[in-house]
Structures are given as C-alpha cells and as structure tokens.
Design goal:
879 residues, alpha+beta, Rossmann fold, Nucleotidyltransferase, domain 5, 12-stranded mixed β-sheet, 10-stranded antiparallel β-sheet, 19 helices, 36 strands, globular
Length: 879
C-alpha cells in the first residue's frame, strides 16, 4: 500500500560513521604508545562500561493538591510517607538531607517531580458508562512499622564487579541477622550496628588478597522517609534473584523459559519489569511482561561469518550489520551497549591505563576481574560511546568491548513479524502470567523470610478499578453543522462506511505524473482505472496522468526520469516501485518534498498485484492523496468554536546521530482537519531552538489569516517526553510558547492554554472482565483514579482497538492548564482527537496532531535529512 506504515521501506539501523582501518579481522594490535596518544586526545577513553577504568561493561494559576487526596495521603503517611515531596526531619516539615550513599552506584531516586497537580476540586471525571477493570498492579498490603537503617559500603582496594562486592559482603551476613538489602554501594537493614563505622576484612577468592570493607551508618530510615520506596524496589530485585531470574539491562528474565528459533539463530527470553511507586492512595507495584530477543551467536562468530562469506567486503559488511546494533555482554551484570565503531586496529592484547595509573592488557583485565579467558587475542574490539543518560550523570567514559563476550540483541523486521506470536499475549493469558508470577513471589520461602523481616508483603491479586467508557463518536463527512454523521462498531473501524459518501472536502487536480518501470505497465494501468472509479464517488476528479517510464529499477534511473518528467506545474507525483528499497524511496521523497515541493505517493507493486484487494488498497491511497493535496476526509463534532490543537514530536536523524528533527503540526480550522506543518533540527544537547518560537508565531499568524481571528483555547499535545524531562519541558517549552505569543505584538491577546504530555511507552495495562474471561477494554475507556499519581493531573485513555494481544493505553499528563476545563471535557476532547488520523479509518493510540507530527519527524529523520519545502506546509504531505 502507498506510503503507509505497512509498505514503506523498513528503516535500517542508523549507521555510525567510523573509518575502517586494516584488512583482516585479526588486525595488527595498536602499540602502547599509540594507545597513550589517543588517550591524551580523549582522556575518558577506557574499556567497557564503568565510571572507573574497568571494562564493566507560563503562565497560569499555581497548582494545588486536591483536598480529598491530601487527606487520604496524610492519613497514610502517618505510618509511611513515600510520595513525591514527602519530608523528613523530626516534625516532617523539612526534608532530611540524603546520606552519601543514597544516590551513588546503583541506588535509585524515586522522588518524582511535582509537575502540575490539578488546580480544581478533583481531577476525576464522571461522564460515561462505568466499567469494572483490573490493572497490572499489586498493592503493598503491609508497610513497615519499625525503623530501618541505611549504610554506605566501601571496598579497599576498589572492587568494580558488583557481583563480587555482593559476594564479599554476603560472607559477613552475620552482621545483619535479620537480613539486608545491598545494591552495590548503599545498604539497608532492620539491624543497627553498634558503631557508626564498622570495618571488616574479607579475603578475595580469586587471588587471596585481603579486602577491607567499611560500613558507615548514614541515617535511620523512618517510616516517613521516601527512601522506603527504594527499599521496596531493591527488595523486589532480590526477590527476582531468589526465583532464578537473570538481570539483563536492569530488567529480569526467566532464562529457564527461553524459546529457541534455530532457523533464525535467535532466542526469545520472557521476563518481567516491576516498579513500586506511590499512587493515588496506595503504594502499588506495577508488573509487566517483557521479552528479550537474543542472537545465538557471539559477535565474534558473526564477524567470522562475514569474513568467510565475503572477504573482499568484510569490513563494509561487518559495519553495515553491527554499527548501531545493541549488544549485550555476558558478564558485568549483562549490560547492553550500542556499537558506535569497530576498532579494527585495537585487540585484546593492547593495554590501557587503569584508574590507579598502571597499564594492563584487556586479556589480563578480563582474567583478573571476571575470570574469563580470551580465546582469540587477535579479534578487533568494539567501541561504545556514552549514552545521554550516562553523560547526564557525569560518565563520559568510552567503552571497549570484546566481541567474543558479546551477543546481539533484538531482531530485524522480518524476524519480529514471525516472533510476534510469542509477544502478543492476549488479556486472559497475560493476567494468568501476572498472577502466577506473584504467586511465585509470595510462596518462595526465601522471599517470605525477607518480607517478614521487612514487615511488608504484596497482594496476590490485581488491583481493581472503576473506569468509564466515553461511548462512540459520530463520524461526519459533510460541512453541514446540523449533520449528525454516522456511528460505527466501536470494536472495529469505519472503513466500510466511507466507501460511498462524498469526502468532507475532495480535491481535484489538472496535472499529475505517474512513474513506473517498463515491466509494471499492466499493474499501472489497473491502478489508474481503479483510481478513477474510486475517486469519482468521493468527489475527486483526475485527468489521465503523464507517464514516465524507467528502463530498470535502479535509484539513479528513477531520479533521472523524475527530473525529466516532473515540471513546476505538476500537482502530484505517483511512483510505482518494485520493492521497498530504502535508498530509492529516500531519493524519490527528497526530490519531491525538498527540491520541488510537490506531494508524492510511493506504491509498492505487490500491494496492487492482488485483484481481490486492489479496490480496498486504492481507496486508502485515494484518501491519502486527497489529504496530501490539502483536502479533508471526515470530522467529528468540535465542542470549541475557535480552538487550535498543536501536536509536537521529534525523531532522531539517522544520517547525523547528534541531531533530531522536531515537528510541529497545528490545526487551522474549526473542524480540526486542516493543518499547518513545520519543524526544525536541534542537536542532542540543545534546548528547543528559537526556531520553535518563530514556528508557533507563524502558525498563529496563518490561523489568523484563514479565520480572521487568533485562536483560544490552544491545546498542546507533546509526545516523546520522559518523566525526567517533565520539569524542563514545563519550564522551557511553555516559556517559548509565551514568547511566540508576545512576538505577535498584541498585548490584549492572552489565549487560554493547556499543555498535555502524551506518553504511550508505558507498562500499564488494563483488563475488562468478559463472558469468556479477561478481555481488552473497549475504545474510549478512561481511567483517572487508583493507578494515577497524586502529584499529577493525569489520566489513562484506551483509544484504539486491537485484534491481537493486549491493548496499550496512553497516559496523559496535564502539566500546564489555564483553560480551567473540567476533567470530563479534557478527557472527551482528547478522545475525539484520536478519530482524526486520515491514514487509518479508525481510532489511534494518540491524538491525530501528535501522530501527524510523528509522521513528519519520521520522514525527515529517516529519508529527507533536510527541512521540507515550505510550499507543502499547509498539506499532510507526509502521510
């Protein structure tokens, strides 16, 4: 199908740029002085991950808390205050300073920022039909009633292997007879040691060296201390190890349940991820299924295969496969790394400087610290640069990895389609897996003993919630304000209903071009005739196209024919291609979108080859073409007379790793069906640039030109923001929006605004009880209690319908709101917007402007790598 998610070329891995040196896998090792020279150029250059040298692999009213929630939390906090903003100290009004070990090593900080609690009486709505739901959360039934203690643990000499640290401390578990929790640096226990500083000596088994362990008392952890959440989460990690789970990249997997796919040399490992947080009135643990796909080959085996298959292009092929890939080490807590370069001239025989200043080879280091022997000392090392989260915490270390001890994670697109049956778990099976997991947790003797010592336990049952279904929106295909439109089956879509009616605003054209290869003449003729028959009842009038014929399917040939056939008067370019070759697709799109500013449609021949489906396929293509020409297809009833909706999303540029394209898509009419689309590039370390201000200002001016007035209210839906970025987004982006409004030069214009962060990458799932067990909630189900957060104005919305697996809800977090809308109106309006995405005749997971922004950012980041021609700004050319 044309230019849709199903037919666009599969995006390859972003390629890192690195020069290949040498000619063989067994490249000449770099001399020590060459290593030293490079380290002088890059002082942080060290092997595998560690902060050490070791290869360890606007405006608006101030927000107020709701009275009801505050009262409930105050009562609970009399025994335990673990929510955001909870204070320490004797009277609970001041926050006690955290001990030195709280934020070091693997310790996690669970104090979430108070972003924008609801300013009204309640963030809960009431509209809709009440539905009984369960969620993948389990309550903490009993909370600690006694004091506990936090310690900081240091090893001298330094032990960089966390497993080894834990093992050594375990040898002196007699110090803590009621058990303890140790994450590698910070330790919590229900036992108070007699001395503030306790020192013990433990002998290291690998070399019989005496290791001095210093255990320093930091503070008493009272039930009112927010560190209690940390204790609960650390204990849960310990529970995983009791059950035999293996930690991989901070999630836990059940290796015993691994499924092998030998024909693809892949393995699928099931697991779970958990998170314990303060929710509305209870501390809850979220539990969700996770799956890790692993190669059955090491990276060294993969490299040797490339060498055997094509020795002349060995380096090029190896970099094509590995650069940008995520690998996992089989040691150092099974961390994952992105490969940025293959260091062809660096081998395990080379030396590097350790933290203490002495030099050591990679071979000796691996033996001393991990008891691993390098089998091939001539293999070239892999290099991984620090991730953004590493840089944020001050880790600028460049890591070197030995291919022999790495395996590739993930799977390509074709493999994922085959393996999806193992990851698309239906609701009934998902609930069974979750409850079985909790049964294992609550019946394991070692878990029971630890839980008893800490005086808390988890519930056996899923949390239950009253949700509400907002009902079905009517789809309207006329501008008549009195039209009620038509309803549809909420479990499906409205693709059948729109085949006959005339589109809301059909667009015709006078001159269009069709490019094809010589052998695709029959398919092209069928397409043109079907296109004409489909467009006529929709109200779209098209003449016969100008035909451009390619003698072969090479990218250069298509580019030459496009340049010789397309003229400035061309209004549409349709290109029929034999396959999903990405470089050809990119060249076509760049010529049409960037160079010429002409809407284009790329169609793969196989989507037109089946007679029984060609009518359905071409109908969807016709709808896409109408949108790309500036037309409208359908609408829903808009409760606001003069509002604007803005979708914002960003996507990394696959050609230049250090920058992203931020797309901004703004509605321009009362029906919320015409858009003004812009965007700009920004670097990874850059705040949203001044271009953002100019683009918002331009969109407001364009709205005024079309509607003779400026919009109010304005709803900003911001996708692609993690929890840690919320304060930054609220402070920076809303300030930029205010600057854009001020740039209009009209001091009387002060629109009401709402800024909503959209988060679809969440682990929350909901289940509705049906006649045959657990089912997916229907589209339009909203949840705004129990599992929401007390410090936020947030809600969950199930807006899409799925035929396989468990539906994923979307979380909406209103971080700024001067519109003073009641929650019902905010929730219903958000749901309406999920009906307006023209690439799918049904509801989608996010508001349409967000999805349009994503499509624009994806097109630029994957194919164009340049800003689109402004001639296309008032069309949905990126569908």
């Amino acid at each position: 199908m044309a230019d849709s998610d199903a037919t666009k070329p599969a995006a390859g891995r972003p390629r890192a740029r690195g020069r290949a040196r040498g000619s063989q896998l067994a490249a000449n090792p770099r001399r020590p002085e060459e290593m030293t020279q490079q380290q002088q150029q890059q002082p942080a250059l060290r092997p595998v991950a560690s902060s050490s040298s070791a290869p360890t692999g606007c405006r608006g009213r101030a927000a107020q808390r709701r009275d009801a929630t505050t009262a409930a939390l105050t009562q609970q906090m009399s025994t335990m205050s673990v929510g955001a903003g909870a204070g320490g100290g004797k009277d609970g009004n001041g926050k006690a300073p955290a001990g030195r070990g709280v934020n070091r090593g693997r310790a996690e900080k669970y104090e979430d920022p108070v972003v924008a609690p609801f300013a009204g009486d309640s963030k809960r709505g009431s509209h809709g039909t009440v539905v009984k739901l369960a969620a993948n959360y389990f309550s903490v039934d009993k909370l600690p009633q006694t004091s506990h203690y936090q310690y900081h643990v240091e090893f001298n000499p330094t032990i960089e292997n966390i497993r080894m640290r834990k093992g050594m401390l375990y040898g002196r578990k007699d110090l803590f007879p009621r058990g303890y929790q140790f994450d590698g640096m910070a330790l919590w226990a229900p036992t108070k040691l007699q001395q503030v500083m306790t020192e013990v000596i433990v002998k290291r088994k690998t070399d019989d060296e005496n290791i001095r362990i210093q255990i320093k008392l930091i503070k008493e952890v009272s039930p009112r201390d927010p560190v209690m959440l940390q204790i609960l989460n650390v204990q849960q990690r310990k529970n995983f190890t009791y059950l035999g789970f293996k930690e991989i990249d901070r999630q836990y997997y059940d290796i015993a349940q691994t499924t092998s796919f030998d024909h693809r040399k892949m393995e699928c490992i099931p697991g779970f991820t958990t998170a314990i947080r303060q929710h509305e009135t209870k501390v809850l643990m979220n539990v969700e299924l996770k799956y890790k796909f692993m190669s059955q080959q090491t990276v060294l085996q993969l490299l040797n295969h490339q060498l055997k298959e094509d020795p002349h292009n060995f380096k090029h092929n190896s970099e094509k496969v590995l650069l940008g890939a995520i690998v996992m080490t089989t040691y150092n807590y099974n961390k994952t790394y992105r490969i940025d370069e293959i260091m062809w001239n660096t081998t395990p025989k080379d030396k590097f400087d350790q933290k203490r200043g002495n030099q050591i080879t990679y071979i000796d280091y691996m033996k001393q610290h991990y008891n691993l022997s390098v089998g091939n000392p001539e293999q070239s090392l892999l290099m991984s640069k620090p991730k953004a989260k590493d840089l944020k915490r001050g880790d600028v270390t460049i890591k070197y990895l030995i291919p022999e001890f790495c395996v590739v994670t993930g799977a390509d697109f074709n493999a994922m389609r085959e393996l999806a049956n193992h990851t698309r778990v239906p609701p009934d099976d998902r609930v069974a897996k979750l409850t079985h997991f909790m049964k294992r947790i609550n019946t394991d003797p070692r878990v029971i003993e630890d839980m008893k010592n800490w005086c808390f336990k988890f519930s056996d049952n899923l949390v239950t919630i009253n949700g509400r279904n907002l009902g079905c929106e009517n789809i309207i295909m006329t501008a008549d304000p009195n039209s009620k439109g038509f309803g549809y089956n909420i479990k499906h879509d409205w693709s059948r209903e729109i085949r006959e009616p005339r589109l809301l605003e059909p667009v015709g054209l006078q001159h269009w071009v069709l490019i094809r290869t010589g052998r695709d003449q029959g398919i092209a003729n069928d397409f043109v005739s079907t296109f004409e028959s489909v467009c006529r009842p929709m109200g779209m009038v098209f003449p016969k196209p100008t035909i451009g014929i390619c003698q072969d399917d090479r990218t250069g040939t298509f580019s030459r024919v496009l340049k010789s056939t397309v003229t400035p008067s061309t209004q549409l370019v349709v290109v029929i291609v034999p396959n999903n070759k990405k470089d050809r697709y990119d060249a076509i799109k760049k010529f049409c979108v960037v160079d010429m500013g002409i809407p284009s449609q790329v169609i793969v021949t196989r989507s037109l080859s089946k007679k029984q489906t060609i009518m359905s396929v071409v109908t969807k293509i016709a709808i896409q073409v109408n949108c790309k020409l500036g037309g409208q297809v359908w609408r829903v009833k808009n409760p606001f007379d003069n509002c604007m909706v803005v979708g914002i999303d960003s996507y990394h540029d696959s050609a230049q790793k250090n920058r992203s394209f931020c797309a901004i898509v703004c509605s321009m009419n009362q029906f919320l069906t015409k858009y003004y689309s812009q965007g700009s590039f920004q670097t990874a370390k850059q705040e949203m640039s001044d271009a953002f201000v100019a683009q918002i200002t331009a969109a407001l001016k364009n709205y005024k030109n079309l509607n003779k007035k400026l919009p109010s209210p304005i709803f900003f839906y911001r996708d692609g923001v993690g929890d840690g970025q919320l304060p930054q987004v609220r402070e920076w982006e809303i300030n930029q929006i205010n600057r854009a409004i001020e740039a209009l030069g009209d001091p009387t214009y002060q629109p009401k605004m709402s800024f909503i962060v959209v988060n679809k990458r969440i682990n929350t799932r909901f289940f509705q009880s049906g006649t045959e067990g657990w089912e997916n909630p229907l589209s339009g189900t909203v949840i705004d209690t129990v599992v929401t957060r007390p410090e936020r104005y947030d809600f969950f919305l199930v807006s899409q319908s799925v035929r396989q697996g468990t539906v994923g809800p979307t979380q909406y977090n209103v971080i700024y709101d001067s519109s003073n809308l009641i929650p019902d109106r905010m929730q219903r309006f958000t749901y309406k917007l999920t009906h307006l995405y023209y690439n799918w005749q049904g509801t989608i997971r996010v508001p349409a402007p967000c999805q349009y922004a994503h499509k624009l950012a994806f097109l630029v980041g994957q194919s164009l790598h340049s800003t689109p021609n402004p001639r296309l700004a008032d069309t949905l050319f990126y569908l």
